[in-house]
Amino acid sequence: MNCPCHVQVYNQGLKSYRDLPLRLAEFGSCHRYESSGSMHGLMRVRGFTQDDAHIFCTEDQIEAECAGFITLLSSIYSDLGFAKFDIKLSTRPEVRIGTDEQWDKVEGALTGAIEHLGLPYEINPGDGAFYGPKLDFKLTDAIGREWQCGTFQVDAQLPARLGAEYVGEDGAKHMPYMLHRAILGSFERFIGILIENYAGKLPFWLAPRQVVVASIVSDADAYVGEIVAALRAKGIRAEADTRNEKINYKVREHSVGKVPVLLAIGQKEVEERSVSVRRLGDTRTETLPFAQIVADLVAEATPPDLR
């Protein structure tokens, strides 16, 4: 984990209360020696990448930062197709550091943020970290398993132990709170959940292979190359399939590979400057002009937050 490193970054130079909240983020490589029997697929691995971020703030800013984080997390989960998630509030364990007064304040801030947003949540008594309470955000996959993905943890201890300070409005030095947060958690696990949730049929904008342009006859190869080049120029992940195979074979192969859009090109399409469009899971095909399909696919490929 990169928590101590981010404190050291924070400690470079004098900080004022006007600098807070100060937010740091990175995609950090993490390693955990999981037992061989517990590892399976992408869901639990020994080496993974985490969207690791930390927010340094005052005590009064905790609730607002928590509410902002939950709003951001909700937006990202919704864009990825997860409209529903569960929030678990883990409170002080028996073995902990910090005073009861500190725990009262930060637990109240987390509760206040959730209730202000009007979201349901469950309390896990005594399940917090030894240094502070936390929120866990859990998704349920396609077969009913629950996975913890996002997390938001309040930490008053690490900044104090590593000498993090800021100058307050009163001119005196104070210790900031450190908020540990991740939205996806392990990238590998989240990708596994995504794949299972969609049964491999990812949304067009998210699919690693978006379009395959397949020739029906060899005379169409040049036109296939032109279409692929035009799509790639617009940022579409397109591939050409000009193998000497029957079109039904190509359709079946790319359907199994979960490619969202297959464009079939025969002699008729070459002469009319059109394409025959077949979408994954749909047995129907439609013929569209070359320029129209490019425009349509560019619109579909735009991520939800940029539309």
Automatic annotation (TrEMBL):
GO terms for cellular component: cytoplasm. Pfam families: HGTP_anticodon, tRNA-synt_2b. It comes from mine drainage metagenome. InterPro entries: aa-tRNA-synt_IIb (IPR002314), aa-tRNA-synth_II (IPR006195), aa-tRNA-synth_II/BPL/LPL (IPR045864), Anticodon-bd (IPR004154), Anticodon-bd_dom_sf (IPR036621), Thr-tRNA-ligase_IIa (IPR002320), ThrRS_anticodon (IPR047246), ThrRS_core (IPR033728). This is threonine--tRNA ligase. Residues 18-203 form the Aminoacyl-transfer RNA synthetases class-II family profile domain. Keywords: Aminoacyl-tRNA synthetase, ATP-binding, Ligase, Metal-binding, Nucleotide-binding, Protein biosynthesis, Zinc. It is an enzyme of class 6 (ligase). It catalyses: tRNA(Thr) + L-threonine + ATP = L-threonyl-tRNA(Thr) + AMP + diphosphate + H(+). The keyword Oxidoreductase does not apply. One of its GO terms (biological process) is threonyl-tRNA aminoacylation. Belongs to the class-II aminoacyl-tRNA synthetase family. The keyword Ion transport does not apply. One of its GO terms (molecular function) is ATP binding. NCBIfam families: thrS (TIGR00418). Its EC number is 6.1.1.3.
